[in-house]
Amino acid sequence: MNAKRTSICAAAIMVISAYVSLGWAENIDSDNNGSQYVWSENAGWFNFEPGEEPGVHVSETALTGYAWAANIGWINLSPMAYGGVFNDGAGNLSGYAW
Length: 98
Fold this sequence. Notes:
Largest sheet: 7 strands, antiparallel
Shape: globular
Oligomer: single chain
């Protein structure tokens, strides 16, 4: 995984971590107020609840599903080859997205 993609994924995970720590662990945009979007200076807007796919689901143990970024494509938060993104239940995330 190249450094640019790693930094993009790390930035997206930090934003999702904020949602988890606020208690919105059942999904990304539980209030349906458009808060599923994340901005990255290098990749543009990420949508963690796109209409074409189920989007990202945050549980107490992991993040699963797909986010969409028009400039770089689909981001898989639970890739089998890389182990996925894990949540320790306290809002601390670790692992890899692809």
